[in-house]
Amino acid sequence: MKLRPLQLLVYALLTLYSIAVALPIVWMFLSSTKTVRELFSFPFALPAQPQWGNFAKAWDSGISHYLVNSLFVTTVSVCLIVLFSALAAYALARLNFPGRVPIFLLLIAGFAIPVHTVLVPLYRSLNGMGLLNTYAGLIAPYVAFGIPFSVLLLYAFFLEFPPEIEDAARIDGCSTLPMVFKIVMPLSMPALVSVTVFQSVFLWNEFSLALIVIRDDALRTIPLGLTKFQGQWSTNWTLMLASLSMATLPVLLLYIVLQKQFIRSLVGFSK
Asked: Residue 181 sits in a domain of what CATH number?
C-alpha cells in the first residue's frame, strides 16, 4: 500500500504513543522478576536470573484473595450498571413520558459531580444504614456513580438505533420489554461492551471509596491489598511489582477478548 506523507506521520505518532504506553507495563513485568538489589542497581536492565518465585510469594501473601474480591465486586457492579443503564437509556431515547427531560438533566448533573466531593456524606449515609465494611456498601455506590456516564453513552447509541427494526418487532406482536432484551440489546452489543470496558477499568482501579468503606482485610479489593507491601520504613518493591503485574492481567485479558466489539462501538452503529 502506498501511504501519503500525512498518513505516515499519523502512523508514526501512533506507534510512538503505543510504545510509550507499553514500556511501563513491560518494565513492571521485567522488574517483578528481579531481586530488590538488582532492581535498584540496574533498574532498566534485563534480569540476570529471573526470580519467578516473586509471583508465588505475592500470590501466597494474600493477593489471590484480593483478586477474588475485586473480581466479585467489579463483576456484580458492572452487570448492574449495564442492566440499569441500558433500560434507562432506551427509555430516555425512545419513550415519551412525563419528567423525561428533568430525569435526563439530573443524570447529566450526576455525571458532573466528582466522587471525592461526596465521600463524607456518603460515609455517614452508609454508616447509618449499617453498610460499612460490606460488599453491598461498596457495590451500591459503584452502581450509583457508574449509571450517569453509562446512560449518556448508551443514550447517544440508542438515538441512532434503526427504528425499522423495532417497528418490525412490534408488527410481529413483540411488546416493549421483551423487544429490548431480545432484539435491541443483542444488536447494541458494541455499546454495551464499551460500557463494560470503561466501568470495569474504573472499578478495578478504584481506591478512595474502597478505602473509606472497607476495613476488614478479608474484604479488601486489589488496590487496597497492594498497600500491604508498603510499610512505614520499607517497601518490598519486587513483590509489589509482581502483584501489580497479576492485578493488571485481568483487565488486559478483558480488553483483548472484547476489543472487536469495543472498536465497533467507536465507529458507530452503521459500521
From this structure: 1.10.3720.10
Rg (CA), the chain: 23
Q: What integer pLDDT is reported at residue 85 of this predicted model?
A: 95
Q: Is the pTM of this model over 0.85?
A: yes
Q: What domain count does the chain have?
A: 1
Does residue 228 lie within any of the structural domains? yes
**Inside any domain, residue 146:** yes
Q: Are 94 and 176 in contact (CB under 8 A)?
A: no
Is the residue at 20 inside a domain?
A: no
* Cα angle for residues 53, 250, 39 (degrees, 5° grid): 35
The span from the CA of 160 to the CA of 252, in Å, is 30
> Which candidate, 101, 123, 111, 103, places its Cα nearest to that of 147?
111
96 within a domain of the structure (yes/no):
yes
Q: Which amino acid is at 91?
A: A
User: b/e map of 155-180 (b: 16 or more CB within 10 Å)?
Assistant: bebbeebeeeebeebeeeeeeeeebb
Q: Could you read off the pLDDT of 196-242 as tens digits, one per residue? A: 999 999 999 999 999 999 989 889 999 998 887 776 556 788 888 99
Residue span of the structural domain in which 139 resides? 62-235+258-266
Residues of the chain with pLDDT under 70: 1-3, 231-234, 265-271
